[in-house]
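Write out the 3D structure for:
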Amino acid sequence: MKVYEDKGNKLFLYSIVLVAVLGGLLFGYDTAVISGAEKGLQAFFLTAKDFHYTDAMHGFTSSSALIGCILGSAMSGMFASHLGRKRTLFWAGVFFFLSALGSYYPEFLIFEQGEPCWNLLIAFNFYRILGGVGVGLASAICPMYIAEVAPSNMRGTLVSWNQFAIIFGQLVVYFVNFMIMGEHTNPIIEKIANGLYRVSSASDPWTITTGWRYMFGSEAFVALAFTLLVRIVPETPRFLVMNRYDDDAMRVLAKINGTKRAKEILEEIKATVMAKTENTEKLFTYGVMVIFIGIMLSVFQQIVGINAVLYFAPRIFESIGMGDAMMQTVIMGVVNILFTLLAVFTVERLGRKPLLITGSLGMALGAFGVATYNLVDGLPAIVAVLSIMIYSASFMFSWGPICWVLISEIFPNTIRGAAVAIAVAFQWIFNFIVSSTFVPMYSMSAGDMGEKFGHMFAYSLYGVMCIVAAIFVWRLVPETKGKTLEDMNKLWKKQ
C-alpha cells in the first residue's frame, strides 16, 4: 500500500474506466446500427409472401431494441444491487454478443435462410430486443460504475467519456455501414398506398439479402472483447462497502486516490451507508423532488428528438436531396464527436447547468431551422444540412453527456441503484415513443405541402421541447460540480 500513500495510480483508474466506456461504445453501436441497415431490412421483409410489411411494422422493427432497453434499464437497479456493478456489465456484454449473432442470422436452426416470413420477423425482433436489454443495462450501469470509482474532481470528465464512447460507437458503426455498403446502393422503396410499400425491381439485391446482416453482425467482435475485459476490472468501492467488504473497498480506493485520501473516502461512504443498504432504504427517503428531477432529465434528453435524427439520419439526408446520404451521416458523426469532446473538457470548469441550457437553445435554433427549410420553398438544401448539424452538435456538448453525468451523481448512495434504474427506464420509454413515432410523423402529408408538412411539424415540435428543457434546467436542476457523491445526501436532506 505504500506506493499509493500520497497519490493514486491514474493508469489504473484510466484502465478500468476505459473498459467501462466500452459498454458505452456498444450502447452507441447497437442503437445506431439500424440507421444503415433499416432500408435493406425493410426491403427484405417487403418480399415476404405470407404478410405485407407495413410502415407501422417497420417503425416497430426499427425501434424494437428500445423495448429491451426499457426492460434492461428497469432491471438494472435489481441487477446492480444483487449482482454488483461489474457482473451486471458482464451480462450486458453477453446480451450484446448474442443479439449481434442473432440479428445477423435470425434463421438460426429454425427457418430457411433468406426466406422472409412473419415468424422470422418475430425472431429478428427478439434478437434486437435481447440486445436492447444489454443496452439498457449498460446505459444505467456504465456511468454509475465510472461515477463510483472516479475522484470527485474528475467525475464529470470521466463520466462524460462514456458519452464520448457512445457517440464514437455511433460514428464507428456509421463508418462500418458505409464500408459494408461499398459500391452497393440502398434499395428503392416504392409507395403503393398509405403505409404500404414495395421493392423496385431496379434495387440492388445484395443490399436486400446480405448487407444489413453484415451491419448487425459486425457488433459481435466489440461485444466479445467487452465481455472478456469486464471480468478483470474491480467492483466499485461503494457497492463493496454497502455489502460490507470494507477491506476490498479500501484496496480499490487506495489504488485510485492514495491511501490517505482513501481512508477519508471510505469513512464518508460508511457514514452515508450506515447500517442501511440499497435494499432497505426507501426510494423516497430524500423526498420526491430528487426522483422527479432524475426522471425529467431522462425524459427531456429524449423528447428533444435527437434519436430520431441519429437512427434515421440517412433517410433524412436523402429526403433533403443530398447525393451521398451515408457520407453525410459519417460527417455528422465526426461533428458529434468533436462537440462531445467540448463537454468532456469543459464540464468541470463550466458546470453542468450552463452546458445544458446553452445546448437546449442551440438545439432549438437547429430544429426551427429545419422546420423553416420545409416551410419556405426555394431555400437551398445546405440550410437544412447545417441546421441538422447545429441541432446535433448542440445536443452532443449538452444533453448527451451531461444528462448521464447528472443521473450518475445526483442520487444519494443508498438509493442510487434503484433511482438510476427508474430514471434510465423513463429515458428508454420516451426514446421508444420518439423513435417509433418519427417515421409516421415525418411522413405525414397535408395539402400543397405534401410530406414537407410532416418534416416541418416534427422539427417544430422538437424545437418547442428544447425551449421547455432549458426552462426546466434553469428553474429546478441543482449544480453538482465539485461535489462528492456523499454530498448528495446532504444536498437533498436540505430540500
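The chain has a mean pLDDT of 84.
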